[in-house]
Every structure is written in structure tokens, then in C-alpha cells.
Amino acid sequence: MAITASMVKELRELTGAGMMDCKKALSEVDGDLEAAIEFLRKKGMAGADKKASRVAAEGTIAIAVSADQKTAMIAEVNCETDFVGMGDEFKAFANEIAALALANDTTDIEAIMNLDMASGKTVDTIRREMVARIGENMGLRLVQKMESNGLIGQYQHGAKIGVVVALDGGDDALARDIAMHVAASNPAAISADEVDQELLAKERAFQIEQAKESGKPMEIIEKMIEGRMRKYLSDITLVGQAFVKNPDVTVQQLLKENAATVTSFIRLEVGAGIEIEETNFADEVALAAKAVTG
Question: CB of 16 within 8 A of CB of 129?
Fold first, then answer.
């Protein structure tokens, strides 16, 4: 059966696959549209599996907050390049994942991947189809849940950083301001009481070694260390930091002025902690040329 341009166009509109892939699919099944769709689907699944080992350290952070502002889900969805991660299709995909996690009250990655999206297809099916069509590995890396007895504020810095903050007291504007501050300043904890003790011990040991170089007596060094540790804690804790929009006041002072308390926060940054193998472009080209020439 002759494959016409209109047949290729119709298949492309239905599947989003490339023109040449659509033409090949129709040729393989003698022009049967439904069979061509199935052919592309199976091909896409195989292609997605082949790309699964490739590092996906770009992407976007998506946030979904309940109507009563008591619950939020924040998700990191990854791809391989910033170009794809900033695209409207990928961001819409990530946002729907966060909304599904919220609606189904789950942070379990496997469970989320098996949920049906608005299209009627599962999250994983849509992911695989996008991988096949766009040509990049994609995946859902992390979903975290936040609950609040007060309200939840959110802030996204571009697509790369997302923050949700649980606030008792205050209002929407304050909650957003605190979330913005967390995005910019990346505090390690809300207050000194919540700072990891191992982190504190390492910093204290570092400060002691530095102070010893002064040659001063240990009793003087101890006093120096106490002052430095107080400064260190103010720098890494939310309430001790200077507020980004008004450095003349600390976040603690801002909260007190508004009779508010931050009970928790979550800050996600795309690709944080993912190891990316450094490659030499010239070496890659040489290897590719060698492979072609045999």
C-alpha cells in the first residue's frame, strides 16, 4: 500500500513521533493506522529502556498545594538537558505529576509512575513516549510531602529551585517571602537546635585548628571558638540569617513582628547530589570517528 503524506501527517498528529518514524511505522504495517500507533508505542518503550542508563541531571521542580493550603507535594523530575527541562511540555508533565501525588496522597515513586494522567495513560507510559520522541532519558527522582496546621507558602526560582514552607501565623505574603528567602539562602535548618550535630562537630574542629595557628593560649582559643560558632550558626540557620529582602532584620525578627513561626521547610534543587561524569569533547569526537572508520 502506498504511504501518503496525509497518512504520515495524521499519525504524527496522533502520536507526536517524528515524520520519518511515522513513515517507517506505516510502511511496516501496510498503512494500518492503529497498527502503526502500536508499532510506535512498542518502539518507544524499547527506546526508553535503552536510554535509562544515561545521566539525567537537568529538569524542573514542580509544586502542588491543596486548596486549603494545608498540604503540599514537591517533586523533582529530571531530563538530560536544560533545553528540554525548560520546555513547556516537560514542565507541564512535571506539574501534573506533582498534582497527581497530591491528589493520591503518595510520595512513592513506583506508585506515582503507575497513576493515570489526564490523557488516560500512566505516568510511566507518557514518560516513555516522551523519551522516544524527544530522545532524552527522563525520570521522577523525588517527591516530598509537607503538611501544616497554619498555611503553606511556595516559591520557585525559575525551574531549578523550589521551596515550600509551613507557617503558623502570618499570611500568604509572609509565607511566600520566607520561601523566597529559603530559595536564595539555602539554610541548613530552621534554628540552632535542629542543626546536625556531626556538621557542628566538623565545623568546631576546623575552627579550633585555625585558631591554634594564632599561638594563643587554649583558654583564649575556646572563647574565640564560641564567638565563631555563634556566627556560623546564625549564617546557616533560617531564623539567624539576615532577611534577603531587608538585610537590616533577621528572619527571626521578621517572624516575631508578624507573630509567626516556621515549623518546617523543604528546598529542592534540580540535580543536587547527582554525579555527572566529566567528558572531553575532543576525545568523544575522536572515539566516534574511530568507530565509524572501524
Answer: yes
Nearest-10 Cα torsion for 82, 83, 86, 89: -130
CA 8 – CA 22 distance, rounded (Å): 6
Low-confidence spans in the chain with pLDDT less than 70? 15-18, 42-53, 55, 275-294
Give the mean pLDDT of the chain: 87
Angle of helix 19-28 versus helix 5-15 axis, rounded to 10: 110
- The closest alpha carbon to 155, from 174, 134, 177, belongs to 177
Rounded to whole angstroms, how far apart are CA atoms 123 and 228? 50
User: What is the SS3 assignment for 105?
Assistant: coil
Say if strands 246-250 and 261-269 run parallel, antiparallel, or are unpaired: unpaired
pLDDT of residue 74: 98
**Residues written for the chain:** 294
Q: Residue 53: what pLDDT?
A: 60
Going by C-alpha positions, the residue among 234, 243, 249, 232 that lies closest to residue 191 is: 234
Q: How far apart are CA 118 and CA 100, in angstroms?
A: 10
Domains defined along the chain, listed by start: 5-51 (1.10.8.10), 53-147 (3.30.479.20)
What pairs with residue 154 in β-bridges? 164
b/e sequence 190-202, b meaning 16+ C-beta within 10 Å: bebeebeeeebee
